[in-house]
Write a structure and sequence with these properties.
By secondary structure, the chain is of the alpha+beta class. 50% of the residues lie in helices and 17% in strands. The protein has 19 helices and 18 strands. InterPro entries: CdaR-like_regulators, CdaR_GGDEF, PucR_C-HTH_dom, PucR_C-HTH_sf.
Length: 532
């Protein structure tokens, strides 16, 4: 290998760190940093041999600074030819590790504890790929801002270019003169959001299914496009779209677009990384606020929320089994973007598969607009992501400490919607207050079973043993205010059959419907057992 070839296949470590500034990755050792190979990082495997990669970067996943074995791994990595090893401080002093690295002739890199290894791997991979492209005579693209990159792509590929994120928001667009555009692009640039069209879902699916550039035929009068997904490793970040005016962009244009996608990934990862820690901290504060506690007011001050309401929590949840991890990320982004754009100061956070939105000033007419927003989000998730989603609104509350109660009721509404088996629906706590009360009673009776009507329990057990329907008959009869005609119609029975069943209930279980207190407790017990 010639000296020129060696230089083109590696980069100075300080240059790499400069590209990754504000991402939480810094140099921890003091010796002169070496050049690193433009190859994907290697992952440390404690159960396998350490395979050497000359000039490579080793991600020390699972290495603890306080463990004696960590120093040994650093020395072994140096002997295997690695140029750098990455560790997390984990709130430990790493001075002894820095000295070990200096003595062994390897660079020690330290990454913030909050940065995920998978994210760091993707970030380094894109940075190294971008460095390789920047040093290549084939791709002269430099690393400027996204608008400069869009202009570079437009000049190199030969068409007006837009760069989008996963929420189909336009992050950047080219501004070169004399490149024709159509109305779809014009609307997207003006609103910084791709206009919603019926063909969008199919087109984006084709782009993200492909590993390279894809030709997208425009629905007239829209022009054709050449598009590519932007990825960090296997993780999708967004997409690039180039207008193909005459449909004659060739294979060279495709290759140029594929090279540009690596550089765009670096930009998007760096932009996302610089805000990751702040987002994580904010998300943790929002989770604490939703859980409630004595520090709710203090947490609200850190979030910039005023102390007095009204506030309302709306919970969004996709159908179980429909949302893969990547899809759930896109759903969370969709909900967050739309909710924060809808209301002044609305804030969102994901907890498990549920995305919660806290709306301030949620009173009066604004509750109706929140419902309309929730229904639009359901429609959008179904159309663009193929996922059915439920939305449930908790009640408006007056103070910050009560936000957790609004979240609690929203969760109960979600539970109720799921038990009904009605996908893609919306309900508010105010609309189903009586059913929520029964759900709360069900929880109370589970904790204190002696409060439950003994007669109701015996009836349910008898039905389970003999396949009868006495519980349903009696519950429907009481629901219908003991109106025999309405009950018989609701159960599709003859009234004589209904009278016979009511007589059997008295004979078998000693049910006396002339006792108001007993009847009330029995009716509640039957409903609670049904909910359980």
């Amino acid at each position: 290998m010639t000296e020129a070839t060696q230089l083109n296949s590696s980069t100075h470590l300080p240059h790499l760190l400069e590209m990754l500034q504000d991402t939480g990755l810094v140099l921890g050792s003091r010796a002169a940093p070496p050049r690193v190979s433009l190859m994907s990082p290697s992952l440390y495997d404690p159960f396998g041999p350490l395979e050497g990669l000359p000039g490579g970067i080793l991600l020390g996943i699972g290495l603890h600074p306080a463990e004696p074995d960590t120093a040994g791994v650093i020395r072994a990595a140096a002997e295997a030819g690695f140029a750098a090893v990455v560790v997390k401080k984990l709130q430990q002093d790493i001075e002894h590790l820095a000295k070990v690295a200096d003595d062994a002739g390897i660079a020690l890199l330290v990454v913030d504890d909050d940065v995920r290894w998978r994210h760091l791997n993707a970030l380094l991979d894109s940075a190294l790929n971008a460095s390789a492209d920047a040093g290549s005579t084939v791709s002269p693209l430099g690393v400027g801002d996204l608008f400069a990159l869009a202009n570079a792509i437009a000049a190199m590929v030969g068409g007006a270019t837009t760069i989008e994120n996963l929420q189909e928001q336009v992050l950047a667009y080219s501004t070169l003169e004399d490149q024709p555009i159509d109305e779809d692009r014009r609307r997207g640039i003006l609103g910084r959001q791709v206009p919603y069209l019926p063909e969008n879902a199919g087109q984006y699916a084709a782009v993200f299914r492909s590993s390279g550039a894809v030709r997208i035929e425009g629905v007239r009068p829209a022009m054709d496009r050449l598009a590519i997904a932007v990825r960090a490793g296997k993780e999708p970040l967004g997409s690039i779209w180039v207008v193909d005016v005459d449909g004659d962009l060739d294979s060279d244009a495709e290759q140029a677009l594929e090279r540009a996608a690596d550089i765009a990934a670096l930009h998007m990862l760096r932009a996302r990384s610089s805000h990751d820690l702040a987002r994580q901290q904010r998300a943790e504060l929002l989770r604490r606020l939703l859980e409630g506690g004595d520090d709710a007011v203090l947490v609200s001050e850190q979030l910039g929320l005023r102390h007095s309401g009204p506030f309302a929590v709306v919970a969004f949840q996709p159908e179980v089994g429909q949302a893969a991890e990547t899809t759930l990320v896109r759903i969370a982004d969709l909900v967050t973007t739309q909710c924060e754009a809808h209301g002044q100061g609305a804030q969102c956070v994901q907890v498990g598969p549920t995305i919660y939105a806290i709306f301030p000033a949620a009173a009066g007419p604004s509750l109706g607009s929140i419902e309309a927003l929730a229904r639009r989000l359901n429609d959008r998730a179904r159309a663009s992501l193929g996922v059915e989603m439920r939305a449930a609104a908790g009640p408006a509350v007056g103070t910050v400490p009560e936000i957790s109660r609004s979240r609690h009721d929203a969760d109960l509404v979600l539970l109720m919607l799921a038990s009904d088996g009605s996908p893609g629906t919306y309900a508010s706590a105010g609309e189903v207050r009586s059913r929520l009360t029964l759900l709360e009673l069900a929880a109370t009776f589970r904790k204190a079973p002696h409060l439950l009507s003994a007669a109701a329990r015996r009836i349910k057990e008898y039905d389970a043993d003999y396949g009868t329907g006495y519980a349903l008959t009696l519950r429907t009869y009481l629901d219908c205010s003991r109106d025999s005609a309405r009950t018989a119609a609701a159960l599709s029975l003859h009234q004589n059959t209904l009278r016979y069943r009511l007589k059997r209930l008295r004979d078998l279980f000693g049910v006396d419907l002339d006792q108001p207190e007993d009847t009330l407790v029995l009716w509640l017990g039957l409903h609670v057992l049904e909910l359980n």
